[in-house]
Amino acid sequence: MPPSPAVPGLVPVAHVHVLLDPPLEVGRTPFGREREIPIVGGRVSGPGRDGEGLHGAVLRGGADRQRVLDDGTAVIDTRYSVALDSGHLLQLATSGYRTGPPAVLDALLAGDAVDPAAYYFRVVVDARTADPDRAWLNTAVLVASAVRTPGAVAYDAYLLT
């Protein structure tokens, strides 16, 4: 019998707070309701993997190119950059889902404040950097639990060990 694989764990890496402009409604396509939500700023702060720190400013210019399915589920697809306090850039991309009861999803789409326990919002975070002290991010599997608030998204990112 082959050996059993290791049971993964979660190590807190960073809290990410992303500021958003109002959504640009592309409209209904054959793939769902398409929206583009401009990213205009924010902050990343956390311990990193080994306490080396992961801190920086979210730069204007990214976006969440979101598809909303008929049941109200939002398919998340973001791309944006962070100017790390180390002087290097960090590129982040997230993909995942925000789903829940129809009334809750309608309230989120309207930009209302909603209790994060009322819906499911999880993403996988892909990170790329040339920062030699944070090169581990280039091959890390990061997962996050997120919350949508009026004008922002925040998530806590964890290294899957």
Can you walk me through this structure?
This is DUF3237 domain-containing protein. Pfam families: DUF3237 (PF11578). InterPro entries: UPF0311 (IPR020915). The protein is mostly beta strands. It has a single domain (10-160), classed as Beta Barrel (Porin). The chain is 5% helix and 55% strand. The protein is built from one helix and ten strands. The protein has one helix at residues 102-109; strands spanning 10-20, 24-29, 32-45, 56-58, 63-68, 74-84, 89-99, 120-129, 142-149, 152-160. Strands 1, 2, 3, 4, 5, 6, 7, 8, 9 and 10 form a ten-stranded antiparallel β-sheet that branches. A hairpin with a 5-residue loop joins strand 5 (63-68) and strand 6. The longest helix has 8 residues, at 102-109. The radius of gyration is 17 Å and the shape is globular.
CATH topology name = Porin
The total count of strands amounts to 10
The class by helix and strand makeup works out as mainly beta
Mean pLDDT: 96
Percentage of residues in strands: over 45%
Q: What is the count of structural domains?
A: 1
How far apart the termini lie comes to 24 Å
**Largest sheet, if any?**
10 strands, antiparallel
Low-confidence stretches: none
Write down the CATH class.
Mainly Beta
